[in-house]
């Protein structure tokens, strides 16, 4: 599978493209959820991000939550049918002063029957990856965000290669990998194809799809018109075709799609949903997603209380 082949697919009539992506779909939908365990004051200059200290976005910043608060959030996520729960923190790398508490959080999540632990805590070194694996972390989340050729337009304080190295460490130590993108940051169609191919090289278990929600006072605050709903659907379909064994997952920004187009995506391309609110943007209530799944005749992968 190469760039020209995927570009030709991208430009097919939309219904035909969606039907092709449906060939790689199961009838299952998986819920996951997260807790925003540390917010704001990030040293990195990612141009989309409200948590960057480079921009005066006036968000509420707070230090790492206590383990009991995270545990209770995980229990609540399970009640709302999530089968995976992630601890998410701001910052380039895990803060060593907090790392032991993060390990505690992971161990507490692992004690909850039917809930698998995830973490999204930044760029890892080898020792950190090893310790997370030893703690029983099931899955680690670390996005590429965009393709390699466009990455310098998104962030200058760390590199695309640093992100790829973290993905490699996650796999080296036997954890599952969740690795996705943010669409609508000014990338070209060709660069969306590059993303699909670069992800296919990484082979993540899960590919979270975020759609840029422009945040006031960030460099991308006016980027509402960088991608439309049809091109979001086209990108999702091509991602699924290029990554047939990965679960595409709706994450932040899916509210930029109409209800009809969200349903089309769940029918033809998407097999996972990050439910509830996200880090600095709002999502859907799990009850709403459950109604949609029932309407589409899909099966929810979860355990009962």
Model description:
Strand 3 (116-120), helix 5 and strand 4 (139-141) form a beta-alpha-beta unit. This protein is of the alpha/beta class. 38% of the residues lie in helices and 15% in strands. It has one domain (3-301): TIM Barrel (Alpha-Beta Barrel), CATH 3.20.20.70.
Mean pLDDT: 93
Strand content: 15-25%
Overall radius of gyration: 18 Å
Assembly state: single chain
Question: CATH topology, which one?
Answer: TIM Barrel
Largest sheet: 10 strands, parallel
CATH superfamily annotation: Aldolase class I
How many strands appear in the DSSP assignment? 10
The CATH architecture classification is Alpha-Beta Barrel
The ordered H/E elements are: HHEHEHEHEHEEHEHEHEHE
Main traits of this protein?
TIM Barrel, 305 residues, 10 helices, alpha/beta
Task: Describe the structure concisely for a colleague.
The chain is of the alpha/beta class and 305 residues long. The chain has helices at residues 3-10, 14-22, 67-79, 96-110, 126-134, 160-172, 189-202, 229-242, 259-268, 286-296; strands spanning 28-38, 84-89, 116-120, 139-141, 176-178, 181-183, 206-211, 247-250, 272-274, 299-301.
Can you lay out the helices and strands and say which pair or pack?
Elements (H helix, E strand, L loop, with lengths): L2 H8 L3 H9 L5 E11 L28 H13 L4 E6 L6 H15 L5 E5 L5 H9 L4 E3 L18 H13 L3 E3 L2 E3 L5 H14 L3 E6 L17 H14 L4 E4 L8 H10 L3 E3 L11 H11 L2 E3 L4
Parallel strand pairs: 1-2, 1-9, 1-10, 2-3, 3-4, 4-5, 6-7, 7-8, 8-9
Helix pairs in contact: 1-7, 2-8, 2-9, 3-4, 7-8, 8-9
């Amino acid at each position: 599978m190469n760039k020209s082949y995927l570009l030709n697919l991208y430009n097919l009539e939309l219904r035909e493209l969606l039907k092709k992506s449906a060939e790689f779909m199961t009838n299952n939908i998986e819920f996951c959820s997260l807790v925003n365990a540390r917010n704001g004051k990030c040293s990195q200059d990612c141009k989309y991000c409200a948590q960057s200290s480079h921009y005066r976005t006036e968000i509420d910043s707070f230090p790492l939550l206590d383990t009991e608060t995270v545990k209770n959030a995980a229990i609540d996520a399970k009640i709302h049918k999530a089968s995976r729960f992630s601890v998410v923190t701001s910052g380039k790398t895990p803060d060593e002063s907090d790392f032991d508490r993060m390990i505690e959080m992971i161990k507490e999540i692992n004690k909850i029957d039917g809930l698998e632990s995830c973490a999204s805590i930044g760029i890892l070194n080898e020792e950190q990856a090893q310790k997370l694996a030893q703690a029983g972390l099931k899955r680690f989340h670390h996005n590429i965000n965009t393709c390699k050729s466009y990455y310098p337009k998104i962030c200058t304080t760390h590199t695309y290669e640093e992100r790829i190295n973290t993905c490699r460490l996650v796999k080296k130590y036997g954890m599952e990998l969740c690795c996705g993108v943010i669409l609508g940051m000014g990338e070209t169609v060709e660069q969306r194809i590059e993303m699909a191919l670069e992800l296919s090289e990484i082979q993540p278990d899960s590919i979270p799809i975020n759609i840029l929600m422009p945040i006031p006072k960030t460099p991308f605050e006016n980027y509402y018109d960088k991608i439309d709903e049809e091109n979001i659907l086209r990108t999702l379909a091509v991602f699924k075709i290029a990554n047939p064994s990965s679960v595409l997952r709706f994450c932040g920004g899916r509210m930029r799609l109409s209800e009809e187009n969200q349903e089309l995506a769940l029918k033809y391309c998407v097999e996972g949903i990050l439910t509830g609110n996200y880090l600095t943007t709002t999502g859907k209530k799990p009850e709403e997603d459950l109604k949609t799944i029932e309407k589409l005749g899909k099966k929810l992968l979860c355990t009962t209380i």
